[in-house]
Structure formats: C-alpha cells, structure tokens
Amino acid sequence: MKLLKWLMPLGMIAVIVYFFHVFLGQALWSAYDPITTDISSLTATGAPNAGLLRIFTTIYGICFVLFAFGMVLKAFRDYHTLTRAGYIIFLIMALTTTVGYALFPLAGDKTVMNFQNMMHIVVTVVVVFTTIFSFFLLAFGYLKKEKLKVLGRIFLIAAVVITLFGAMNPIGMAANLNILGLTERLVIFPLQIFVFFLSFIYTFHSKLLNQKS
Predict the structure, then answer these.
(1) Would you give the DSSP letter of residue 104?
(2) How many C-beta neighbours within 10 Å does residue 31 have?
(3) pTM of the model
(4) pLDDT in tens, 119-154
(5) Using CA atoms, how far apart are residues 55 and 127, in angstroms rounded to an integer?
C-alpha cells in the first residue's frame, strides 16, 4: 500500500516537532521551571509565546494522527484482531491528544477548576488510560498473535514503564512535592521516544518485524 510509505515516517516528524516545541518554549520563557511546571502550561491561555508554540503542537498533532491512522491500516492489512484493536485505541489516543488539548488548553490559573481546566484534566485522563491500554493490547497482540517476540517485549516494557511513571503524577501531587513537570516528563518523553522508534522501524523495515517465533 503506497499510502503507508508516506504515513509511517510521520511519527518521527511528530516527535521531532513535539520536542522542538517543548525545548523552544522552555528557552523563550525564562521563568519557566521544567521540574515544577507541566508541559501544557507552555501553551496555556495567556502564556508567553503560546500562539507560536500552538503552531508546532498543531503540526505535531496532525502528523501523529496520520501516523496512528497508518498503523491502523497496517494492522488491518497484516495483523490479527488483538493487534488491530490495540492500534484503534492508539488512534483514539492520538485523536484525543490532538483535538482535546486544542479545544481545552489550560486557562488562566490552572489551580482554578473552571470548565476549560476541568476538561483539560479529563482529556489527560483519557490520554493516559488509552495509552496504557493500547500498549498492553499491542504487547500481547505482537507476542501471542503476530509472533513478533522482540517487538512484543519492547511494547510490554514500554507499557509497564509508562504505567509506573504515570502513577508518580498523582502520588507527587498528593504529597505536595511540586515536581509535576518532572513526573509528567517521565511519562511523556518515553512515550514520544517510543513513537519515534515505532515509526522508524516501520519506515525502514527493521529486522524486528521479521523475528517471528
């Protein structure tokens, strides 16, 4: 399918743009502390350079959704039901990330639970759980159905890492540790790195995709 040839690299492009927006935002906002402040604050309503950074998050979102759609197409062409279901949920996560955060950026004081900030939290919860659920489904899909043991194990490790680091966010907040920026990055950065890896191997046909057993 020629379309896949164009969709697969978009995951790598999405990740590069995502990291660019994060580090550019930090560099332009001298008072920003990546240890204490979440990434969403960079594009919050009223934040310095929010308009500029939203251009990059829009590009990121479009590329990410198209990549996830490509993985769904690939799954329906070559894989079994469990793997297909995993990539459908992965696509739902990508759509929720792209549309949800665009519609509901943080507004004003993020500690004030107005409608926009509440919806931002809802979007975050949906993204976290769909990410974890899709990764576990894909891990077992690759391991049990596709017999791609190496890729399945990598998915499983990523799922466990994201789950464990994800649990640190509410724990840190409950303990008033003021390290939300750090704990959030421990979840998001590994996820982005994994998306880059997944895009890379499906773009360049790594031997991982042929190691069946």
Answers:
(1) S
(2) 6
(3) 0.93
(4) 999 999 999 999 999 999 999 999 998 989 989 999
(5) 21
